[in-house]
Amino acid sequence: MSIKTVVIASANPVKVNAALGGLQRMFPDVQFKTEPVSVPSDVADQPMTDAETLEGATNRVQNAFVSFPHADYWVGIEGGVAVIQNELAAFAWVVVKSKELQGKARSGTFFLPRAVSELVEQGIELGTADDMVFNHSNSKQKGGAIGILTGDVLDRKELYEQAVVLALVPFRNEKLYAEKSANGN
Q: Model pTM?
């Protein structure tokens, strides 16, 4: 069994476990050694658009790569929100990088209740807003908003893990994606 080193651009255990879970699901014959690191996203603490959230995940991967260049993979996960049809929706972007390829995917999206949305729109980070509205503590390192709202039927780790799997599609189909890059398409 080969061993691959993965730098996860966060010390948040939910993000670390989601990255590891997605990698293990896609590559069950590989053993992964994770190295969680805190690196800046270079966007707002609470990204407020789809583009800003993707930029945050991309920046995390790049900052992790520059700081820790001796790994096999780098994973960045950034949670964000965006207004869709006058409602605030929550989601995350995942970016996975190797020296040869990059994959990216967005998680499922769900809409936040008005009480949470109002706090986020006032500049409060989603995790803090969840804690305030639902009387929780440090929910962003646990089940997150989705865990609270679904009664843990789906939690933040599962939501992010699926996006990690989707971001790994190019790595499972390396020849197809390498050809696409080589042709400039």
A: 0.93
